[in-house]
Amino acid sequence: MNTEHPWVTTPIREDLLRGALDVEHTAYGLLPHRLPARARRQIPDEQLAMAEAQPSGVRLAFRTRATTVELDTLPTKRAYRGLPVPADGVYDLLVDGRLAAQATVGGGRVRMIDMATQSAELHEGSPGTARFTDLPARDKDVEIWLPHTEITELIALRTDAPVEPAPDRGRRVWLHHGSSISHGSNAANPTATWPALAAAQGGVELVNLGFSGSALLDPFTARAMRDTPADLISVKIGINVVNADAMRLRAFVPAVHGFLDTIREGHPATPLLVVSAILCPVQEDTPGPLAPDFDGGTVRFKATGDPAERAAGRLTLNVIRDALAQIVEQRAADDPDLHYLDGRDLYGEADHAELPLPDAVHPDPAGHRRIGENFARLAFGAGGPFAAPETSSAMR
């Protein structure tokens, strides 16, 4: 503890948060949500309820001269019965946009999940503190990115100098929706998920609606995107629809149209990028559902559908890519701000040969970096659909 200056406790308010669409006041403090309350009331399963409350891309943003920062939180961690307990989630502290320190919070609640039955038990625990020291003794913009793998209730922020909300730097807001890969599965830390990496390279403010296992064209997610201010929007569609075996081609095509129609109600001329799935060999031509395989002591996934049933409308990644390309081509005739990106341009055959998917579905940290770099180049780079105009003003 810094003994030369008294501690300053700053109430954690919504104006200190970025990347959250809503907050919930709990017995401990403030719980960020990535879906608004209206949408949360329509969530049909525990998977999405857990995923949207895991604050991928959510960060505290403030300006201060503090050299020591403490953040008290109550984490809710996820563990799987029969598998090793995952490492504690990482808090990334950025100073003027650069990673300067990391911390973890031990303890907390643990949600124990049985992957075979999808049942879960919640074990109670105590709050803890993420502590950052030896920060530069000057005025600076500080961001604390919350763990993308842990539900995080924010209790108290203490510093050895006053804090004020970070100023608006006029950066464009990028709103993204996708699956567990967009959420950050297997990324080492919250600023190393591929959307966070791409946002940093693109110089934009990220709002990440990547929901593990839950990019299923839900109407309430489309309405949340419709109602969220944004300068740039992307939707990554495919893998969850296939691995959940959630629908057939007849239902999928109108569902995509409806999802895009809803977004366009609130963003009629915003650049909108539809992205198909990255290469995933187990699902390229084999329908779902996806099933966990515990052989060898680590979880891997395998597709259990029959490829012969593609003729009857069963979905695979290749079927979905063809459908998405056709949908975007058709709609773009009347919507010049709508674009398509084949996910295999982000991670394809050569990438898989170099950086194979450890569990057959999700990339490792190096894979996240590859995807983020490719997205930044193809979307934010010269000629890309998100390339920065000479002047832009982020909507707030």
H/I helix tally: 10
Count the beta strands: 21
Span from first to last CA? Answer: 37 Å
What percent of residues adopt helix (DSSP H or I)? 10-25%
Which spans have pLDDT < 50 for at least 5 consecutive residues? 391-396
Mean pLDDT: 94
Instruction: Please tell me how large the radius of gyration is.
Output: 21 Å
Largest sheet, strands/sense/barrel: 6 strands, mixed
What coarse outline follows from CA principal-axis ratios? Answer: globular
Strand content: 25-35%
- Looking at how many chains there are and whether they match, the oligomeric state comes to single chain
Structural class: alpha+beta
Task: Summarize the structure in words.
This protein is of the alpha+beta class and 396 residues long. 24% of the residues lie in helices and 28% in strands. It is built from ten helices and 21 strands. The chain has helices at 37-40, 46-53, 180-183, 194-202, 219-226, 239-243, 249-266, 317-332, 349-354, 365-380; strands at residues 8-10, 17-18, 22-25, 30-33, 59-64, 69-80, 90-95, 98-104, 109-114, 119-123, 128-132, 140-145, 151-159, 163-165, 173-178, 205-210, 232-236, 272-275, 290-293, 300-303, 338-341. The longest helix has 18 residues, at 249-266. The chain is globular. Mean pLDDT is 94; it is low at 391-396.
